[in-house]
Amino acid sequence: MIPLGNKIHFTSLGCARNLVDSEVMLGILLKAGYEATPDLKEADYLVVNTCGFLQASRDESSQSIEDLLKEKKETAKVIVAGCMVQKFGDEVRSKFPGVHYFLGSGDMEKILEAVQADAPGFGVSSAKSYLQMGEVPRQLSTPKHYAYLKIAEGCAKQCAFCIIPKIKGPLKSKPEEQVLKEFYLLLDQGVREVIMIAQDLGDYGKEKKEKQGLEGLLRKMLDSPLDFWLRLLYLYPDEISNEIIEMLKMDKRLCRYLDMPIQHISDPILKAMRRKTSRSQIIEIITKLRQEVPGIVIRTSLMVGFPGETEKEFEELLEFVQEYPLDNVGIFKFSLEKEASAAKFSGQVSEEVKQERFDRLSKVQMKMVKKLSKRYVGKTLPVVVEGYHPETQMLMRGRFYGQCPDIDGQVIINDGRKVKAFGELYEVEITDAIDYDLVGRVIAPVKRKTPAPQARASLSLV
Questions:
Q1: Which one of 15, 52, 367, 443 is most buried, by most CB atoms within 10 A?
Q2: Any idea what DSSP says for residue 274?
Q3: What's the alpha-carbon Rg for the chain, to the nearest Å?
Q4: For residue 204, which of 192, 195, 216 has the smallest C-alpha distance?
Q5: What is the 3-state composition of the chain as percent helix, strand, coil, each rounded to the nearest 5?
Q6: Backbone angles phi, psi at 438, to 5 degrees
Q7: How far apart are CA 60 and CA 335, in angstroms?
Q8: Where does the pLDDT of residue 21 fall: very low under 50, low under 70, confident under 90, or very high at 90 and above?
Q9: What is the rounded distance in angstroms from the CA atom of residue 70 to the CA atom of residue 64?
């Protein structure tokens, strides 16, 4: 039975996989009759889905909980869920006695129980991660034209710097039938860009001894006659098979965009990190992608200050980003996590040196980005126009296939007179490039295919 106050406010922190979990919790509550509100001061229940990956993530989560407890109205209840609770539950519970209920990262379906509980509770089970199955509701919180599709949780790798397997548990893949059901329902709902996510897409199905599980799934998705963008996050260098490259070449609905985490390029550092690829293998796959997939956009993450990284190894990394330019790079400083193997390694790098290397790599990477971005000037690209620019309604903003929401640059549109609706594709002539952003004018709408109606999926997301 719903109490008089039934307004809920959500804060989702961390990765897109967390966002999907938050959408599931929101869907369950909305189906039960609760009402979402963006105003935390009018909310009766405030739910925060935390991230526990790095100390910086935990600090952000703690600050968010603290802020909610301070700013909420007196009668409101705070529910804290997610990775930080799962891994550091006792610590969080002790630090925030004002929290009404705690849920672990595998306990999203208990959200109604948590909200309706009269007494404070701690609902953390042994399940370390959550995969939506069957008829569980999900309310999309992204703009209507794109959505995330989580196909697996946990991780089978044992990278020396990472504690995700300890937080999220071993690899657990969603059944192909369930993935396809969700995929088609998203398309039925009008989603035009589906972003496939997992800690590691390339390992999809491998815990079940399935070979080429990802390739088989992609083939079935691309069998659809519908018009869409399908984007892959994340795919490691050793998992980019010839078949995936062929699909990228042959079907432009599969975005010519790969987020390919490599972390470093020096063989001694890669070996110490327990990565599966060497310098030569990384360079080989980058070269192959550039040669065989015209217009491919490659994003990666690089780490500075890993234990044992000397100036020599760092210089090797600097030279690499200049010799083999990458379109988008997330640069991180090594974070010492006590439960990670690398915490015990000798040769720990000082914070001052980490920062200095971070700054130098960022500067060199920005120079390369400015050069790479110029190749688009004078070209016409299909761009999804997403809305007005946050600084002025004289400009619009959008993304082409090489820009992922929230993490990459954007296309700034200075002539959008031909735009009739946001969330639709338009041909845009690129006239300038400013760092990671492109500038252009709309030429005409992109005509989409109109195939025969698809069979409706039975899974409900609303």
A1: 52
A2: T
A3: 23
A4: 216
A5: 35, 25, 40
A6: -110, 155
A7: 15
A8: very high
A9: 10
